[in-house]
Amino acid sequence: MTQRREIIAILRGITPDESVDVCRALIEAGITMIEVPLNSPEAFRSIELASKAFENDAMIGAGTVLSRRDVHGVAEAGGTFIVSPDANKKVIEESVRLTLRSYPGVFSPTEAFRAIRAGATGLKFFPAEVLGAKGIKAIKAVLPPAMPVYAVGGANPGNFGEFFAAGCTGFGLGTFLYKPGRSAAEVGEKAREAVTAYDRDKAL
Q: Could you write out the DSSP letters of every residue in 35-98?
């Protein structure tokens, strides 16, 4: 796998027919963490296709994971990480048990520590646009320093620097990168814009 930037591409609504082409465009642009939310059409099939095509080039995972059954489905499809909208202890623990990375959604210190105690790999602060960089910075101050923190829901190339300064490790990008109907070429163009901003602001 090439250099991994801490950018998670969220492909909500993607279909199996387009999953490989869109993932290829993202990888070629420099984004190698790709999430297929389970409320997308035939999500497990998209994960399976992308995982087989890019096993050595990217991490393919699932989002909107709500149950242990979902976790098993992702593992069977070849996914390697789990993003959940909440700090569901059972989902986190089952992900860890199956050696999948776990990125639960949190909004408060209470949720953050609940997720950490359950074994989370990293924390997804969502929605970041509501909590804001100042809110994330305040919570980050009491978290274990090594715990990765991602801003999701409102993060974009225009504010990467602000979130980096607050202590964020990386970002989840959804509609900025992908919307149903957007071509793989267009996704690649948006991905290159995000990668340029990430590399620039991370170096500051």
A: EEETTSTTHHHHHHHHHHHTTTT-EEEEES--SHHHHHHHHHHT--EEEESS--HHHHHHHHHT
Asked if 35 is an active-site residue, the reply is: yes
6 is annotated as an active-site residue: no
- Per-residue pLDDT tens for 71-116? 999 999 999 999 999 999 999 999 999 999 999 999 999 999 999 9
Q: Kindly name the residue from 18, 94, 124, 190 that is annotated as catalytic.
A: 124
CA distance readout (Å), 133 to 11, 17, 171, 172: 24, 37, 12, 14
Amino acid sitting at position 174 = G
Q: What is the DSSP letter of 2?
A: -
Whether 7 and 198 have beta carbons less than 8 Å apart is answered as yes
Angle formed at CA 167 by CA 158 and CA 37, multiple of 5 degrees: 65
Distance CA 21, CA 101 (A): 24
The whole-angstrom separation of Cα 172 and Cα 162 is 15
Q: Of 35, 48, 94, 190, which residue is the catalytic one? A: 35
Q: How does DSSP assign 91-118, residue by residue?
A: HHHHHHHTT-EEEEEE-SHHHHHHHHHH
